[in-house]
Amino acid sequence: MSFKFIAASTTALCLSGITAFAGGHGAGPVGVEEINGAEVIVDANHMTLYTFDNDAEGQSSCYDACAQNWPPLAGDAEMALPEGYGLTERTDGSMQITYNNQPLYLWINDTNPGDMTGDGVKDVWHVARP
């Protein structure tokens, strides 16, 4: 596994191979890692992030049981996010991090960094790629 830094709009600090965005809060997307020869977007814990085909116009359609299996990647307005990343408001008022206007999710069955077991689930879940 190799790690590639993503430039943030503010100063990025390198802490043990993890990029933390200065002034940010929470664990957001921190970079791109090469896993099994593919570049994938990962969170602060180096866990693979996913997109959902049923999301439209930057809005999540994954709630209730779906969100229990596919936890939304939470963010807040105080986070400094790299170019291409943003936030979308969920129906409960919380914020979810997006990449190229696609909400990002974790997969409950990925237990270790580098796992990508959610790729292709029901033909609507896909590894988030830069």
TrEMBL record:
Residues 1-22 form the signal peptide. It comes from the Bacteria. The keyword Signal applies. GO terms for biological process: alkane catabolic process. Pfam families: Lipoprotein_15. Keywords: Signal. InterPro entries: Lipoprotein_repeat, UCP029720. This is Lipoprotein with Yx(FWY)xxD motif.
